[in-house]
């Protein structure tokens, strides 16, 4: 990646709907050259895709919770992960260090729905030893974009 790729990523993270012409204007490139750069970033897996950012409360998922999960033994990992990947309420699944094995970010309608997700679904997965749930009261900050560090970008003009 070079400084132009970095700038393209920065612009697209702020406005993923901008046209090739608009992005090209920011980058000092033609529309076709801009489109090619973005396609290359997609091919390299730097850009995973484009999506609409939906307000979870507006679509009926007013409750967010984090569920820490401990497995009985490592051999239960694959089946656990397979089941978690099938659950649309699980927005994120992180393998973590410490007392727990996984940390799940769950979005659902309310506490009854959370009870169904945790008690009826997650705890019923073979190998789940225990769960610990934390309900989110409010979210002052949440962003889907990772931090970008310009000092780590290789400038194409210096190669």
TrEMBL record:
Q: Which SUPFAM superfamilies match?
A: Dimeric alpha+beta barrel, Winged helix' DNA-binding domain
Q: Which UniProt keywords apply?
A: DNA-binding, Transcription, Transcription regulation
Can you say what this protein is called?
Lrp/AsnC family transcriptional regulator
Under the heading Pfam families, the entry gives: AsnC_trans_reg, HTH_24
Which domain of life does the UniProt lineage start with?
Bacteria
Task: Kindly state a single biological-process term from the GO annotations of this entry.
Answer: response to amino acid
Which PANTHER family does the UniProt entry name for this protein? HTH-TYPE TRANSCRIPTIONAL REGULATOR LRPC, LEUCINE-RESPONSIVE REGULATORY PROTEIN
Q: Which residues form the HTH asnC-type domain?
A: 1-62
Question: What would you give as a GO molecular function for this chain, any one?
Answer: sequence-specific DNA binding
**PROSITE patterns, alphabetized:** HTH_ASNC_1 (PS00519), HTH_ASNC_2 (PS50956)
């Amino acid at each position: 990646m070079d400084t132009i790729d970095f700038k393209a990523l920065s612009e697209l993270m702020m406005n993923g709907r901008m046209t090739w012409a608009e992005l090209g204007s920011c980058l000092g490139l033609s529309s076709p050259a801009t489109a090619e750069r973005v396609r290359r970033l997609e091919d390299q897996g730097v850009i995973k895709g484009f999506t609409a950012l939906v307000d979870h409360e507006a679509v009926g998922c007013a409750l967010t919770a984090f569920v820490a999960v401990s497995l009985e033994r490592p051999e239960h990992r694959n089946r656990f992960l397979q089941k978690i990947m099938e659950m649309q309420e699980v927005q994120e699944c992180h393998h973590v260090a410490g007392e727990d094995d996984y940390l799940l970010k769950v979005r659902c309608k309310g506490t009854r729905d959370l009870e169904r997700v945790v008690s009826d679904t997650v705890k019923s997965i073979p190998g789940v030893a225990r769960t610990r749930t934390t309900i989110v009261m409010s979210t002052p900050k949440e962003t889907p974009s990772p931090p970008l560090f310009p000092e780590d970008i290789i400038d194409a003009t210096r190669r």
